[in-house]
Amino acid sequence: MANLKYYDVILKPIVTEKSMNSMSEKKYSFSVHPEATKTQIKEAVEKMFAGTKVASVNTMNLEGKNRRRGNTSGKTSKTKKAIVQLTAESAEIEIFTGL
To answer: A GO biological process this protein is involved in (predicted)?
Structure first.
């Protein structure tokens, strides 16, 4: 298990049409550190965004894609995605409000 601080866990928000539609249900998508656990992700969201209370966290490990450039081939890096469900009385996350 990685020794991660809460500010190292969340890398960036994922802004897609599907993730924007799920915000009405208080579900937010983030790209997270590949070695982060669900409890670390929950702790990071509650510390980084004031007034939020996490109900559940779902994670997905995404394998790297095969890429080619001329005769050379390789893979892109692995990523991890987290979908965070907030409780009903929790505050909204401010990053997504202006989008």
So the answer is: translation
Domain borders along the chain are: 6-65+77-88
Under a CB-based contact definition with an 8 Å cutoff, are residues 9 and 40 in contact?
yes
Topology at the third CATH level for domain 6-65+77-88: Alpha-Beta Plaits (3.30.70)
Task: Give the DSSP per-residue string, the chain.
Answer: -----HHHHEEEE---HHHHHGGGGTEEEEEE-TT--HHHHHHHHHHHSTT--EEEEEEEEEPPPEEEETTEEEEPPPEEEEEEEEPTTSPPPGGGTT-
Parallel, antiparallel, or unpaired: how do β-strands 27-32 and 72-75 relate? Answer: unpaired
**pTM here?**
0.86
